Amino acid sequence: MRSTHLTYPAHYPRKVYRLQGISAECSPPASAPAQRRRSGFTLVELLVATMLLSIVMTAVYTLTNGVITAWRTTEQDYDAYQNARNFITLVQREFSAVVAGHLFEGEEDEFTLFTVSEPFDIEKSTGRHLIRVRYRLNNAKDELVREEALVVSALPTMVPPDGKLPENRIRVKHEEKFVVATGVKKMEVRYEWVPRTLDRDITFPPEPMEHIIVNMHSRKFGLGMPQAIRIKLTLADPDAKRKGKTLTVESRIVMRGQPRAYPLYMLQEHLREAL
């Protein structure tokens, strides 16, 4: 069998290998350091890996940032809405125990009532008391303020025609102010009256009549409490970056105890100042 000889440059270490009768001279296997140098990443591979990693991290950041922003926005909106709902619940509870309806009065953004309730200032008094409560909007600070005072004298049973009581006729103590809601841009209070139908056949249900809604209520009207009160709160957007968006909370509080109903002509006569 003929042997085949392969020749290499002189500087290569030569070694003869024989396999099935074929002999050849070749260089020995590369050393371990040389193999490690040849098995590394190229510059192109590193650039491609870096680019892919950047794309993945950008997508993860965008998704995470969107979720966090949505959560913060929802939390801020919920807090503002919850404060307004707490105020409405407080007013409903106090109207359910209102007394001396003929002393009730109100404007477009405030109202005053006498009720039997627990004062906010528990350090000076605890338990249920007859208190005078006034709710008003502080436009300078966008706050709903509650002003309360404990009544220590008897309430008048009648009101003068002009609606003005003598000074110190109603004596109070422990006058305090509390902020019950913040971020309120506007409060709208409306007073609702339901006219009574005259000379109707009681065997048939009364015909529906249009309600009279006014934006003020005075003691001099001499009508006592209205049948219902509507309160609408416009809240400041907690996120200043969102323009044009507002939060509103509305409630219609129906007076308990069946306030006296008046004929339409009597309501129009007494409420002509507010109409």
What are the SSEs and their pairings?
Blueprint: E1 15-19, E2 22-26, H1 32-38, H2 43-95, E3 98-99, E4 105-106, E5 110-117, E6 129-138, E7 143-151, E8 172-182, E9 184-193, E10 212-214, E11 228-235, E12 247-254, H3 264-270
Antiparallel strand pairs: 1-2, 3-5, 4-5, 5-6, 6-7, 7-8, 9-10, 9-11, 11-12
H/E series, N to C?
EEHHEEEEEEEEEEH
In one word, what is the shape?
elongated
**Overall residue-averaged pLDDT value:** 80
**Overall tally of structural domains:** 2
From the structure provided, what is the oligomeric state, counting identical versus distinct chains? Answer: single chain
Terminus-to-terminus distance: 127 Å
Largest sheet: 6 strands, antiparallel
* Structural category: alpha+beta
Structure characterization notes:
The radius of gyration is 42 Å and the shape is elongated. The protein is built from three helices and twelve strands, in the order ββααββββββββββα. It folds into two domains: 1-37, no CATH class; 69-270, no CATH class. β6 (129-138) and β7 form a beta hairpin. The mean pLDDT is 80. Strands 3, 4, 5, 6, 7 and 8 form a six-stranded antiparallel sheet that branches. By secondary structure, it is an alpha+beta fold.
